[in-house]
Amino acid sequence: MRYDLVIFDNDGVLVDSEPLSNAILAGYLTELGHPTTYEDSLRDYMGGAMHRVHDTILERTGQRLPDDFDATFHARVFAAFERDLTAVRGVTDVLGKLTADGVPYCVASSGSHERIRVGHRRTGLDQWFAPDVVFSSQDVGRGKPAPDLFLHAAQRMGVAPERCVVVEDSPLGIQAARAVGMDVYAFTAMSGPGELPGANGYFDDMAQLPALVL
Description:
By secondary structure, the chain is α/β, with parallel strands linked by helices. It has helices at 18-31, 38-45, 50-61, 69-84, 91-100, 113-123, 148-157, 171-179, 209-213, and strands spanning 5-8, 105-109, 134-136, 164-168, 183-187, 201-203. A six-stranded parallel sheet has the order 3-2-1-4-5-6. α1 packs antiparallel against α4 and α4 packs parallel to α6. The protein is globular, with a radius of gyration of 16 Å.
């Protein structure tokens, strides 16, 4: 095997959540007096943990977001997930191939554990990811682009960082993986290679992934 562990990002890689969540985030920030377009949200926040939104708004405006910002945002996102969320096309075939070949895998997401659970339950991906292979930025305190989450996942899975490969779709995630010496392949369904610098390779269809990591 080329790698001993495949680490998947969640949003945009396993579940097709980025269009939903970023449209909601942009609308909510605009509603609160911080004009934000969908494109702004993708550029500034995609792949990051919630603290990145708070930090960015405070840095730019000197204002803090409301205390209930996270709860309100997540309530809106989870409602949208229950209505509209789907798994990324072809990802269950990839997971089946990894399982058949005996290649361990896990998920390491900037999203909360609740967000991951809701999305996986809605899409049926919960059957592929037991709780002990699901890791969130909540587990480490600092989300991507800090490398803490990927290091935590590798340690918990008992694999050296250099034997891991990461599947990502955001520049923040690529930065985090490269910072700890992990190879990373970028899924370009939403962002082109030019917007995802530093990856070891690029693919736009999940059917292409096994050839890259196996």
